[in-house]
Amino acid sequence: MSTKTKKLCAALMAGVFATAATASFAQTSADTPMTHADKKAAKKQAEADKDAAVAQAKADKKKTEAQSEANEAAADANLKNAKKAQ
Fold first, then answer.
1. Which of the 8 DSSP states describes residue 36?
2. Are 61 and 8 a contacting pair, CB within 8 Å?
3. Alpha-carbon dihedral angle through residues 5, 10, 12, 18, given to the nearest 10 degrees
4. pTM of the complete model
5. Which pLDDT tens digit goes with each residue over 16-69?
6. Domains of the chain: total
7. Do residues 63 and 19 lie in contact, with contact meaning Cβ atoms separated by under 8 Å?
8. Is the pLDDT of residue 86 over 80?
9. Which domain does 20 fall in, by range?
10. C-alpha dihedral sign at 64, 69, 70, 71
11. 31 vs 27: CA distance, rounded Å
């Protein structure tokens, strides 16, 4: 696993855990008004969620590109084998 992939996974995991923590906190404190710290934390959470979504999209794109390259290589190999069989 490359360093870039590890960083993307770490960012995604951080977003998931932070989202779960925020959801848990929101359920326990729904009756209290939001403080400045709460608003700041929510803003940071939104930024983390966005970063995690971007990281996931990049990872998905990279995976799709790698799969496409693998499919192309397999098709080339099949073509070579077919030409040899003629």
1. H
2. no
3. 180
4. 0.51
5. 666 655 555 555 555 778 899 999 999 999 999 999 999 999 999 999 999 999
6. 1
7. no
8. yes
9. 3-85
10. positive
11. 9
Provide φ and ψ at 32, rounded to 5°.
Answer: -90, 145
Query: Phi and psi dihedrals of 12, rounded to 5?
Result: -65, -45
Give pairs for 11-20: CB < 8 Å, separation 24+. Answer: 11/51, 11/52, 11/55, 12/52, 12/55, 12/56, 12/59, 14/48, 14/52, 15/48, 15/49, 15/51, 15/52, 15/53, 15/55, 16/52, 18/45, 18/48, 18/49, 19/45, 19/49
- At residue 34, the pLDDT reads 87
Positions of E strands within the chain: none
Residue with tokens 């499919």: 71
Element (H, E) at 83: helix 36-85
